[in-house]
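Before relying on records like the one below, remember that each one covers exactly one chain. Contacts with other chains, cofactors or solvent are not represented anywhere in the record.
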Amino acid sequence: MRHTARLAVAVSTLALTLAGAAPAAAQSSAGLVERVEGTAAVARTAAPQGTALKPKDDLFLRDLVTTGEQSKAQFLLGGRARVTMREQSALRITEIPTVSTVEITSGILKLAVQKDRMKPGDRIEVKSPNAITAVRGTTIVVQVLQTASGPATLLSVLNGFVEITPIDPATGAPRGPAVRVSDLQQTTVPTGGVPTPPQPIQRNDAVRLDATFAFKLMPVATDDILKRQLEQAASDAQKAQQEKKVNLPVDEGGPVVSGDDIRARQGVPAPPAPPPPSRSPRGQ
């Protein structure tokens, strides 16, 4: 009888433990942090005050990831794409069936998609404040430029082909036709405008830009620097919660890149991002 009672208590305890762990287990990982240089933080529903990121940490949908001064962060998105953020950048990961979106609100990132790991119909998008780019088996560099008239987007393609579509920042709806950009080309989407005709970029300039995404052996961040980064992450998360939620069109009006539009070319260095003198990009 006593043994039966102890067994009942043990089963009840295990049930309560599993019930408490269910919410965490139900939230599947959207990405895995691979490298951090300097300071990087994540703000999420469970930790809106901000938490420092370190290698092997999981990233979840709707996480807001930020990097501090002279910092970089790299993570693997769903085992299909590698995202590298440079200093003072902020992004969020969202997902709907077959479409993963990396939303960059400030700074600069490089996205490299592994085409052989993409399933038929899968698509990865990079959304900036005024444009959205559909990617399959392609490497791109996207930078948000802060201009006098508002945020603009500079897109540089490393290899393959993509399509970039200007969008209305308030609604997320397309506000013009998509523009096709090939490898070692770049285009700018000005605030309220359409993408400029793609322009070629020099390979030497591409090499120099690619070097800016490289990781170095940096000293461990001090407590004071880390504290400022966490405070900034919490502030960014609070601002994001106050923004109006937008449902972006996916199947109708959104950019779609078919398999015929993509041809991966290996070993080509990343393109440069030289903004016009009138612009003042963050993180430079």
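The radius of gyration is 21 Å.
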